[in-house]
Amino acid sequence: MSVARQISDSSARREAADLLRSGELVAFPTETVYGLGADATNETAVARIFEVKGRPRFNPLISHVPSTEAAFALGQADARAEVIAETFWPGPLTLVLKRTAACPIAWLTSAGLDSVALRVPGFSVARDLLSEVGRPIAAPSANRSGRISPTTAAHVALELGDRIPLILDGGPCDVGLESTVLDLSGATARLLRPGGVNRSEIEALIGPIELAQAGDTITAPGMLASHYAPDAALRLNATTCQMGEVFLDFGSTLSGEAEADLSSSSDLMEAAANLFALLRALDRPGVTRIAVAPIHLHGDPESGLAAAINDRLRRAAAPRG
Ligand code: TXA
Ligand code: MG
Asked: Which domains does the chain have, with CATH numbers?
């Protein structure tokens, strides 16, 4: 069982960088969720990610770098990418770009695609780690495939503690949802996954973007029908708590009867940060059904962060394959 060490401890960070450079896996915090990191240029190290997660191979991974400059050495930036990076990096946004001729990212990392997914994380000690490694780090969320993404080091230890040599602990993640994935590898900008940065904020900068349809691109893990799945069944948009259910509220709609509230003040940032941890807490042995209150921004379930939270909830509620 690996013991979590503080990412702010420079000797732990140095050890993590050495492990990563030698092809080992290290879990580390970002502002979105904890990542299961491997050297993105080392196919064997990346293969280990899939093995440890039990993740289907066709899913391309995000490579993390400490700066926009490092990102644009790996992916071809146009004017759209530059303005997006200028505005949202470091932060919870991933850009999919055509790989540069000199890009050393392993093909397994991009699942054979000629595009690469790149992110400069907002959490500064994570960037310190990336600078210390000096190579792009591929990192999906640090959970077993199809399970809830971890937002604390303790979640990672439960999921993967017996399978990886080191977990870096940076406390609970601020955002609590994976990054927004924006595909700028073609002429039309496409939103592949909603996340911490809203569609409207992006459109304000580069004009209208398309929403990717499930099935019209390579299968992304965020697009698999049942990816964010607790063991218990979920009932969404619940306004009452039925027999045999535990209730996950939003905005104190069922005061007294609810077991937990994503945000009693209907704050979507707070709800996003709590989402995976509360699903995990309610998904305990003996609980077979979790009812979840409607999540919305002033009544609109597709507005702002409500869209990303509802996307995750729909996947968690989808029939299991
Ligand atoms: O917040 C996050 O993004 C977290 C933290 C650890 O940074 N990472 C994460 O990685 O969620 P992952 O591997 O679970 O998500 C990768 C997403 C998927 O939706 C995947 O399909 C998409 O990025 N993606 C990666 N490379 C792509 C590519 N070349 N073309 C299209 N989509 C790509
Ligand atoms: Mg994941």
From this structure: 3-211 (3.90.870.10), 233-317 (no CATH)
Assess whether the C-beta atom of 142 lies below 6 angstroms from ligand 1: no
Nearest to 309 by CA among 287, 279, 265, 288: 279
Report which ligand 1 atom has the smallest distance to the Cα of 141: 6
Which residues keep their CB under 5 angstroms from ion ligand 2?
141
Give pLDDT tens digits for 189-237.
999 999 989 999 999 999 999 988 654 444 444 444 434 578 899 999 9
Residue type, 80: R
Expressed in percent and rounded to 5, the helix, strand and coil fractions of the chain are: 30, 20, 50
| CA of residue 220 to ligand 1 center, whole Å | 8
Per-residue pLDDT tens for 161-184?
Answer: 999 999 999 999 999 999 999 999
Sheet holding 93-98, edge to edge: 4-6, 166-169, 26-28, 35-39, 137-138, 62-64, 115-119, 93-98, 180-183, 190-193, 210-211
Report CA-CA distances (Å) from 289 to 223, 308, 312.
23, 22, 17
pTM of the model: 0.84
99 forms beta bridges with: 75
Cα-to-centroid distance, 119 and ligand 1 (Å): 9
Two tokens, residue 101? 């001729």
60 lines ligand 1 (CB under 6 A): yes
113 Cβ closer than 6 Å to some ligand 1 atom: yes
Cα dihedral 82→88→92→94 (10° resolution): -10
Nearest ligand atom owner, CA of 122: 1
